[in-house]
Amino acid sequence: MRHFNLLLWANLVVFICSAQNNQGGRLTAMGATGAAVKDLWGVAANPANIVGHPTPSLQITYQLNAISKDLSTQALAFVFPINKQAIGIHTQRYGMAEYQSNSIALILAKEFGPKLSLGIRGTYHQLRISGYGSTTAASIDVGIAYQLSDRVMLGYFLNNPSRSDYIANSAISIPTVGHLGISLQASDKLLLSGRINKENFALGFDYQLVSIFSIRSGISLSPLTHYFGIGLVHNKFIVDLTYLKNSQFTHTPQLSFGYAF
Fold it and tell me: Which residues of 121-155 are buried (b: 16+ CB within 10 A; e: fewer)?
């Protein structure tokens, strides 16, 4: 019975955590449509998209969950550009006192000419359930980004193509999901983006009202979720405020801070 309960809890947590790959304030507010958007949080959305980031940058984000006030997500993203390459670090903690999912990832990305970039992310996962112990896993993710034209970009990100499992029991697996994305720089101020996978479809936008202030919004279909956000940039500091509302829960707030070195 104890073994059965462990599997039940672990699979529940893995299922929940698979939907909690947080993409930071900006991309989350755009409907989590980061598969084809150049951004620091490509460390979570598509590793190929961290190439071309102008300076070393660090951001942290904190999201409360509407299921429980004790349930939250904390994540960190860091990117260090080196000529036509980039190195990234991504850490995330999701959970509460009774159970936690933690991960740390190293990302490597490289440009191959002016249009194509590739990225790879290696992640170490830890899943802990109070009273039952913990288990670990390692996975590899891959991403590609292609600049179709000056204004249109395509991206594809594949989670865990090797179908890695947690060590404790092969029944507990990390999801394998492919994400196809497209973005359109409609004007100097307006960016449109979209993402599709086998379970969901999402659209979003980012509009820069003035040089230091942007508004964002997005929508995804499964479950029906609305996203809203604003972004502030002052000198080298970045602040993003994001809210999610879906058909199952109430508002979910998220706050992000960043600094470009």
Answer: bebebebbbeebebbebebebbbbbebeeeeebbb
| pLDDT for residue 194 is more than 80 | yes
Which amino acid does the sequence have at 158?
L
Name the nearest CA neighbour of 60 among 38, 76, 82: 76
**DSSP bridge pairs for 90:** 77, 105
Q: Kind and range of the H or E element at 6?
A: helix 2-18
Q: How confident is the model at residue 172 (pLDDT cuts 50, 70, 90)?
A: low
Give the residue from 42, 19, 67, 14 showing the smallest Cα distance to 199: 19
CA separation for the pair 148, 134 (Å, rounded): 44
For the domain made up of 2-260, the CATH class stated in words is mainly beta
Could you state, in order of their start, the residue ranges of all structural domains in the chain? Answer: 2-260
